[in-house]
Amino acid sequence: MNVLNAEFVKGFIRMADDGWQQGWHERNGGNLSYRIKDEEIDSVREELQPGEWREIGTSVPDLAGEYFLVTGSGKYMRNAVIKPEDTICIVELDEKGENYRICWGLVNGGRPTSELPSHLMNHEVKKRVTNGKYRVIYHAHPANTIALTFVLPLTDEAFTRELWEMATECPVVFPGGIGVVPWMVPGGREIAVETSKLMEKYDVAIWAHHGMFCAGEDFDLTFGLMHTVEKSAEILVKVRSMVSEKRQTIQPDDFRNLARDFKVTLPERFLFEKH
Ligand code: 2HA
Ligand code: ZN
After folding, report:
1. Which of 10, 208, 229, 270 could form a disulfide with 149 if both were Cys (CB 3.0 to 4.6 A apart)?
2. Pocket of ligand 1 contains residue 73 by CB under 6 Å
3. What is the pTM (predicted TM-score) of this model?
4. What is the whole-number distance in angstroms between the Cα of residue 242 and the centre of ligand 2?
């Protein structure tokens, strides 16, 4: 099958375009990766033309031999829909999980996303903790979430609690909470290690003064997660722009009642009393 006719490729391109349309991908900002299923890679195998092996810059042994669809470094999300062969690529990892090679795409040259170490280390954690269910890692620059990193304490507790309060669906959509990485140099192994530690327990990691990473089972759930967090952040920005203190809000016991009825577990450490 032609790679561009495969459903997983169409879903990937649609998600890249959805993010662009949300305004989360100025210039070459943001990146997306998908861990391809065996039957999906088999369906396009005759189209693959493996190039040279190159270093990933970190080691992901639990992903050895796997294939990923990823956006290209320096490529613009807005172009994924009009020139996908130039913008995205399929990469294969070697048997140690230390090198990759491009097997399709990036026809005009280039490399996979500069955040490949973070993507792959997050995939490695999520594959383990979800028994292989999670396949999507998404990084974007949504403005309201970034704005809050200048205003809220950079703690998992502050971000989780504030964003849960701003929309009733939030504790149901991300019951595990949200992790926060302090400002760090992007693109390397160090920030990848810190992010992947948070991915052990959360599906969302916020990079202070930079953006957000989300992980999920498929494109709908992962895009929907980013969208929900950013919508909630937008509401908080609006509220904080109007008043310094909320007049009323959802209280700890309200969350406990919600958790009971919606059958989700909300960690008590996010349900502290505020003063
Ligand atoms: O430009 O978003 O974090 C891609 C990025 C780097
Ligand atoms: Zn970024």
Report:
1. 208
2. no
3. 0.97
4. 29
Strand order in the sheet with 204-207: 54-55, 99-105, 88-93, 67-71, 31-35, 136-140, 211-216, 204-207, 179-181
Which CATH code of 3.40.50.12780, 3.40.190.10, 3.30.420.40, 3.40.225.10 fits the domain covering 3-270? Answer: 3.40.225.10
Show me where the domains of the chain are located.
Answer: 3-270
Locate 174 and state its tokens.
């991300």
115 is catalytic: yes
* Ranges under pLDDT 70 in the chain: none
Determine the Cα–Cα distance for residues 81 and 208; give it in Å rounded to an integer: 29
Q: CA 34 → CA 9, 13, 74, 239, distances in Å?
A: 9, 11, 18, 36
Alpha carbons 169 and 177: distance in angstroms, whole number: 13
> What is the rounded CA–CA span in Å between residue 214 and residue 217?
11
Ligand 1 near 43 CB (within 6 A): no
> What is the number of other CB atoms lying within 10 angstroms of the CB of residue 42?
11
